[in-house]
Design a protein that fits this description.
With 287 residues, the chain is of the alpha/beta class. The chain has helices at residues 4-8, 15-18, 23-32, 61-74, 96-104, 119-134, 153-163, 174-179, 184-188, 212-216, 229-234, 249-253, 258-286; strands at residues 11-14, 37-40, 77-86, 109-114, 139-143, 168-173, 195-200, 242-244. It has 13 helices and eight strands. β4, α6 and β5 (139-143) form a beta-alpha-beta unit.
């Protein structure tokens, strides 16, 4: 029999979904909604429609201590650390202190991508970063998006092959996957162990905003858009964390609370995962 733990244990609430909610409150919200994980950056992001006070886990050691205590209290951990990006002319080694802080916070995996148009250089920087993270007991994922240097699944797989480490894997953001033109067959062709993390959201197939970024910060509750989420989830490995990265800027600006938006996303994700577990059960019984 499929239990709620089997179905929901992999859900993470992501920092873009809560738009700058400070870490202690973020952890409490994740616990209240039944999520065991959060994904977070070291500072609040550029969008703060609710006017939350700014914070810095990088600069504030006392906040880090309180954050660690809150995670212990609520049995919530950080599944993904964000904010480490390859930039033109930058040296990825400058993130060494950030990686130390993420290790202190118990971050399991960091995510990276590139805004440097020099793809070979980006690949080499990924390799350096993966080694630095591994020295601190942290895995690394690579994210692709049509607006980034690593624009599609093929390029991301090339990066994984270049780095050639078991702890350097793909992050599949379902919005970017669909908008890059990929299918469930593309996902099914990937070795499952190459996928390290999934970010779940929904949207229209065609771009709505004037620029791609407009759509990335104003997504839709899973199941309310046009993405074939059930088929995509069925093609993904069953042992990876599924992060709810569903920033809804228009709803936030219209006054919907962070809690209410997050609750809608969690409820929808649970429905999708319940259906997935039910579909898996007959196949297991036939084996």
């Amino acid at each position: 029999m499929v239990t709620s733990d089997d179905v929901f244990a992999r859900l993470a609430l992501e920092h873009q979904t809560v738009f700058g909610l400070p870490p202690i409150e973020f952890i409490a919200l994740a616990n209240d909604l039944g999520c065991r994980y959060i994904a977070i950056g070291l500072t609040n992001g550029p969008h703060d429609p609710h006017g939350y006070p700014p914070y810095s886990l990088r600069e504030d050691a006392a906040l880090r201590r309180r954050t660690i205590a809150a995670m212990h209290e609520h049995d919530v951990s950080i599944s993904l650390g964000e904010g480490i990006i390859v930039r033109p002319g930058g040296d990825i080694r400058r993130y060494a202190t950030d990686l130390d802080i993420m290790a202190e916070l118990g971050v399991a995996t960091i995510n990276t991508t590139s805004m440097d148009p020099d793809l070979p250089r980006s690949f080499d920087e990924f390799a350096v970063l993966a080694q630095m993270a591994a020295e601190r007991g942290i895995g690394t994922t690579i994210e692709f998006a049509p607006s980034l240097t690593v624009a599609d699944l093929g390029c991301a797989l090339a990066a994984v092959h270049h780095v050639a480490r078991k702890d350097f894997r793909l992050l599949i953001d379902i919005m970017h996957l669909v908008r890059a033109g990929h299918t469930t067959a593309d996902l099914a062709s990937i070795e499952p162990t190459a996928i390290g993390y999934v970010q779940l959201s929904d949207n229209t197939i065609r771009q709505r905003g004037a620029v791609y970024r407009d759509d990335t910060i104003d997504r839709m509750v899973p199941g309310t858009g046009e993405f074939p989420l059930s088929q995509i989830l069925a093609a993904l490995p069953r042992d990876v964390v599924i992060g709810l990265e569903v920033p809804m800027l228009a709803a936030a600006r219209a006054g919907e609370s962070t809690r209410d938006r997050a609750r809608r996303c969690v409820r929808a994700a649970r429905e999708l995962l319940t259906d997935l577990a039910a579909a898996d059960s007959p196949r297991k019984g036939q084996q």
